[in-house]
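Tokens for chain A. Residues wanted.
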């Protein structure tokens, strides 16, 4: 029945009982003769087991099914053979039962039975289990074996056998029995075209498939005909039109017209049209809620959901939503604004990854911004700048989107990795400058309508929108808000021509009225600085002081208004009155503070050359930069913080240098040797050696030669007392590079004792593998090398450079904030020194371009620019680039101060010449940084000697 290669499959699907492989075992029957119904029932049970198996759809399962059908066919064929043998040996003659005792003739199936068999197969869609069950029942009813039914169904010749003239009985035709009956039947069968009994299973399967396909095609054609009939009946023209189109064929008037699907009435059609319109309207996306910021944030989420359905439509709607949200984003609460930012970033990631959508997405992002000066345009500029600054923090943006983000952020003067608030504040500062420039064109309505100060609603007034957005971008930080407003006032005073036109005067009044003038307000020192700025005319100061007096600022009354024709002495006196009223500078007169600063500055200028190492040079540069910061703050009117710097300019810097320089940064710092020589000389005196080891108990450092001798004694001392004393000394000095290096020298032959292992873990500050590990010595050496590098990096100059660099960044950030013409928000300063330096350079460059040259300046601005370009090309690293920009800052300061102090131009030229000479002869870039700060300190001395 089955060879050995099928036994495993039979056991897998049917169990161990099928392992013998013969027909009875496969079907789970005893070795007895069984009726066909019993065999078929057993076949169905075994087929059910195969169907229930998890691998029922594999080729292996199909092989088992084939074996089961073959086994059933064998058992049923054996039973028929036995019956025929019994019948052939019996007496001949016709029985009373109509010949039912005779052997069953094969192949004589009535056509009616064949037709019924076809219907069963067609109804079940093929030779399925249900079809087999019905065919088995049909065979029992007609007294025909199932195998014969299957053969008859598969044989086209039998199916086309003509029916006899007289109605044939259903089932088998049983002629009269006789001795010649078997031979006669065989001849009739051959004449009828009988095929061999052992039909090929593949051929039988192919015939079944052809039959089923024919039935399916017939069913499809029937269904198609029904559908065509339905369509024609539902769309049939009126009777008279049908009659005319039929070529004059007249229908019987009384014949009723049958409509299986009658056409709907007019009212029904209208109702259906209304329902369809409602459904279409419900499916349409909600219209953009202009001015409703929370609803627009929700629609951003809807755009995210629509990406998977229609990316193009989602991107177009995204751009429209952004444009509307950018006009009213200041209405959002802080959490809603964060949610909007997150959804925009997510949308950019999901759509931007598709290269075909990159241009479309860039256009959508561009919908946020508007370069005009209307109220809504200013809001859109701030929102766009904030979002681009927020996107600059993302490192995995698609290349096209990333390039656009970098360009937008760079145009704002910001570095990457910014926040939404930093970008929005930078855009608001730029917007205030643009609005001021629009004011300078004309005083009439064409200068900007409401921007010139005429009354208007907040929706049409750019300055009202600007002030509202200032509140939004500053949040709870009142100092940021007042600093931005003071910067806008400064822009009006510096950029508008004198005298101020009515539009400019109106804007100044509106801006000053928004200042709180509280005790910690940054506007107070800014106003005090304006008193000493020669670019602000007495007319401007008269306007400022009159508005301040009208605003009920603390300590200010109407007597504190400057005359429009006041001289410098009157300006200085009124400034002192304001200082006394606001408690700034009253306890320390300005001349005393300036004199104290100049005195300290000169001392540090003279001692700036007393540096030996690069770390000391950087520390000196930081001290000089702190004094430069104090000078900048004194210039704008601050007194408290500059006084603290003047009192102790070296305090924090000295601590940083001392902390990094504790101990030597190299193994050659304290070579030693004297102790080692004495110890070796006392070789025959153990007591003397113990005394010498005791000397190390009071020392915090040790030389390299001494450390090596001490380490040898701790590992291989001549006695236990010597080893214990040396071990104690080594443990006290374990944090020194010399001790670590001494153990590293002995690592290749360290004994694997518990004392040595503990000492090695202590000195290397790491856990070592077990001593039985073959790589133990390599691990010891690796740990000691890492520890030695750590100690050397934390000592000397290298240990202090990082801390000093951070301090230098803070000093430049303070100098940028204190710059007179600095209109950038202070918290937009970058985290690197070079970023803060370049922003301070930008502020000084604006100041230099606003001054009138006298012709005695040591350098022209175009010369400064060319020299800066040449230095930038030669700068090879970040430190060298910083040093190059530092010289450009010094030259820009020299030009501006020469314009303010033309009589001191010769001294300014001397400072620049000395700076050039010192830089050429410097041995280290840190020395160049020190010399650059020294030159700027001398320039500040020249500037402050003429007063604030």
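Reply:
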């Amino acid at each position: 029945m089955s060879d050995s290669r099928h036994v495993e499959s039979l056991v897998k699907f049917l169990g161990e009982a099928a392992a013998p492989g013969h027909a009875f075992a496969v079907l789970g029957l005893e070795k007895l003769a069984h009726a066909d119904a019993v065999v078929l029932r057993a076949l169905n049970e075994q087929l059910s087991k195969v169907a229930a198996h998890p691998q029922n759809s594999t080729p292996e399962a199909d092989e088992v099914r084939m074996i089961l059908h073959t086994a059933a066919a064998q058992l049923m064929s054996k039973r028929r053979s036995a019956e025929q043998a019994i019948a052939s040996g019996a007496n001949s003659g016709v029985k009373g039962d109509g010949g039912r005792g005779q052997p069953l003739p094969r192949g004589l199936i009535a056509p009616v039975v064949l037709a019924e068999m076809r219907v069963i197969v067609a109804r079940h869609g093929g030779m399925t289990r249900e079809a087999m069950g019905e065919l088995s029942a049909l065979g029992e009813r007609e007294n025909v074996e199932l195998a014969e039914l299957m053969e008859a169904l598969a044989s086209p010749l039998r199916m086309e056998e003509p029916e006899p003239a007289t109605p044939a009985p259903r089932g088998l035709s049983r002629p009269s029995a006789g001795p010649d009956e078997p031979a006669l039947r065989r001849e009739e069968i051959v004449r009828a075209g009988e095929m061999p009994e052992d039909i090929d299973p593949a051929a039988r399967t192919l015939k079944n498939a052809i039959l089923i396909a024919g039935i399916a095609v017939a069913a499809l054609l029937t269904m198609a005909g029904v559908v065509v009939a339905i369509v024609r009946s539902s769309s049939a023209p009126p009777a008279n039109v049908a009659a005319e189109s039929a070529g004059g064929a007249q229908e019987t008037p009384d014949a009723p017209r049958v409509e299986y699907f009658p056409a709907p009435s007019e009212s029904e059609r209208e109702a259906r049209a209304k329902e369809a319109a409602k459904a279409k309207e419900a499916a349409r996306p909600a219209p953009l809620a202009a001015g409703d910021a929370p609803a627009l944030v929700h629609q951003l989420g809807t755009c995210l959901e629509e990406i998977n359905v229609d990316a193009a439509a989602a991107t177009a709607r995204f751009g429209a939503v952004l444009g509307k949200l950018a006009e009213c984003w200041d209405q959002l609460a802080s959490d809603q604004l964060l949610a909007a930012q997150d959804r925009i970033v997510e949308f950019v990631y999901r759509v931007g990854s598709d290269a075909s959508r990159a241009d479309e997405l860039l256009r959508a992002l561009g919908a946020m911004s508007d370069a005009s000066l209307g109220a809504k345009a200013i809001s859109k500029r701030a929102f766009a700048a904030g979002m681009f600054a927020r996107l600059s923090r993302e490192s995995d943006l698609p290349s096209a989107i990333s390039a656009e983000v970098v360009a937008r952020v760079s145009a704002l003067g910001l570095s990457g990795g910014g926040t939404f608030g930093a970008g929005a504040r930078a855009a608001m500062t730029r917007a205030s400058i643009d609005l001021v420039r629009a004011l300078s064109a004309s005083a009439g309505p064409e200068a900007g309508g409401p921007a010139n100060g005429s009354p208007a609603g907040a929706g049409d007034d750019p300055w009202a929108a600007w002030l509202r957005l200032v509140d939004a971008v500053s949040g709870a930080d009142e100092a940021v808000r007042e600093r931005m407003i003071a910067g806008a006032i400064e822009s009006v005073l510096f950029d508008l021509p004198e005298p101020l036109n009515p539009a400019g005067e109106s804007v100044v009044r509106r801006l000053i009225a928004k200042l709180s003038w509280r005790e910690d307000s940054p506007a107070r020192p800014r106003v005090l600085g304006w008193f000493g700025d020669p670019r602000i005319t007495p007319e401007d100061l008269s306007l400022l002081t009159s508005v301040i007096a009208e605003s009920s600022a603390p300590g200010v009354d109407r007597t504190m208004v400057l005359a429009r024709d006041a001289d410098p002495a009157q300006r200085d006196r009124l400034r002192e009155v304001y200082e006394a009223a606001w408690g700034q500078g009253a306890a320390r007169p300005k001349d005393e503070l300036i004199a104290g600063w100049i005195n300290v500055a000169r001392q540090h200028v003279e001692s700036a050359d007393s540096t030996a190492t690069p770390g000391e040079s950087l520390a000196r540069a930081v001290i000089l930069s702190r004094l430069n910061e104090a000078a900048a703050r004194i210039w704008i009117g601050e007194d408290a913080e500059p006084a603290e710097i003047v009192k102790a300019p070296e305090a924090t810097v000295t601590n940083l240098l001392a902390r990094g320089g504790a101990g030597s940064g190299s193994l050659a710092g304290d070579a030693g040797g004297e102790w080692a020589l004495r110890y070796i000389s006392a070789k025959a005196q153990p007591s003397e050696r113990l005394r010498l080891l005791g000397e190390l108990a009071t020392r915090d450092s040790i030389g390299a030669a001494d450390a090596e001798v001490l380490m040898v004694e701790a590992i291989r001392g001549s006695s236990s007392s010597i080893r214990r004393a040396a071990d104690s000394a080594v443990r006290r000095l374990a944090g020194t590079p010399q001790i670590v290096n001494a153990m590293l020298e002995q690592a290749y032959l360290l004994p694997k004792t518990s004392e040595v292992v503990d000492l090695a873990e202590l000195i290397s500050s790491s856990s070592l593998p077990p001593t039985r590990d073959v790589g133990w010595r390599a691990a010891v050496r690796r740990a000691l090398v890492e520890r030695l590098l750590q100690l050397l990096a934390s000592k000397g100059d290298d240990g202090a450079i990082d801390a000093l660099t951070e301090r230098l960044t803070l000093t430049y950030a303070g100098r940028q904030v204190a710059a007179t013409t600095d209109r950038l928000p202070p918290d937009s300063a970058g985290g690197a020194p070079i970023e803060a330096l370049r922003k301070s350079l930008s502020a000084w460059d604006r100041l230099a371009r606003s001054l009138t040259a006298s012709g005695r300046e040591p350098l022209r601005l175009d010369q400064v620019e060319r020299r800066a370009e040449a230095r930038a090309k030669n700068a090879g690293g970040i430190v060298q680039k910083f040093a190059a920009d530092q010289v450009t800052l010094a030259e820009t300061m020299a030009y501006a101060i020469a314009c303010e102090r033309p009589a001191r131009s010769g001294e300014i030229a001397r400072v620049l010449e000395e700076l050039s000479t010192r830089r050429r002869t410097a041995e280290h870039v840190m020395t160049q940084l020190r010399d650059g700060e020294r030159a700027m300190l001398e320039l500040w001395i020249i500037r402050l000697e003429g007063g604030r």
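The chain has a mean pLDDT of 74. The CA atoms of residues 498 and 537 lie 8 Å apart.
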